[in-house]
Design goal:
- The complex is a heterodimer of chains A (116) and B (112).
- Chain A is mainly beta.
- Chain B is mostly beta strands and 112 residues long.
- Chain B is built from no helices and 12 strands.
- Chain B is globular, with a radius of gyration of 13 Å.
- Classes of the chains: A mainly beta (116), B mainly beta (112).
């Protein structure tokens, strides 16, 4: 079974530039998550999709971050404009989207963003 | 607010030593508990999980964890570590919804 795919793996940009990350979840997984992992911290959820609808974006800085999952499969996370504090690893995860509490998330390799 | 605490930031030990990593959470309700591992250069992988039933759960690669509800803890153990267990370990908790809250992680270095 193919895992969660992400691209690019690394990105270096200057502050105030824009950047986009792509994620393709495991086939058949209805739920897709984007996390931000700052060095020395655990991943923090930014946004969660169920199919093509947003379930939770309460921790997404909406003034500069946006995400979409238009066809309910792959997803794009964008930052515009980037700030120095956005330097982090951006992780995508997916799960079957089971009802209740037994869902397990599977993670992609992440995109390491450096903002100069 | 609900939180997840991992007691050790960095653990260094020799091969064949026993490992125990602490994880505590702050929430009195129903929780689902996970340990994830990230080997150098690899992505986060599920090590084991607890949803209900036997509080002692066994995962991959000889790891196990014990859920102690009264202590709000879910500690990870391995009786005898190998050099290949060098990795970062994350405890994660689902606080009665589908959000995962992660601890800050513990880096484990096993010396050959």
């Amino acid at each position: 079974e193919a895992g969660v795919a992400q691209s690019p793996r690394y990105k270096i940009i200057e502050k105030r530039q824009s950047v986009a990350f792509w994620c393709n979840p495991i086939s058949g997984h209805a739920t897709l998550y984007w996390y931000q992992q700052i060095l020395g911290q655990g991943p923090k959820l930014l946004i969660q999709f169920q199919n093509n609808g947003v379930v939770d974006d309460s921790q997404l800085p909406k003034d500069r971050f946006s995400a979409e999952r238009l066809k309910g499969v792959d997803s794009t996370l964008k930052i515009q404009p980037a700030k120095l504090e956005d330097s982090a690893v951006y992780l995508c995860a997916s799960s079957l989207g089971l009802a209740g509490d037994t869902d397990t998330q599977y993670f992609g390799p992440g995109t390491r963003l450096t903002v100069l | 607010a609900q939180s997840v605490s991992q007691h050790n930031h960095h653990v260094i030990l020799s091969e064949a030593a026993s490992l125990e990593l602490g994880c505590n959470y702050s929430y009195g309700g129903t929780v689902n508990l996970f340990w994830y591992v990230q080997y150098p250069g690899q992505h986060l992988q599920l090590l084991l999980k607890y949803f209900s039933g036997d509080p002692l759960v066994k995962g991959i690669k000889g790891f196990e964890a014990e859920f102690i509800k009264s202590k709000f803890s879910f500690n990870l153990r391995k009786p005898s570590v190998q050099w290949s267990d060098t990795a970062e370990y994350f405890c994660a908790v689902n606080f009665n919804d589908y959000k995962l809250s992660f601890g800050a992680g513990t880096t484990v270095t096993v010396r050959a």
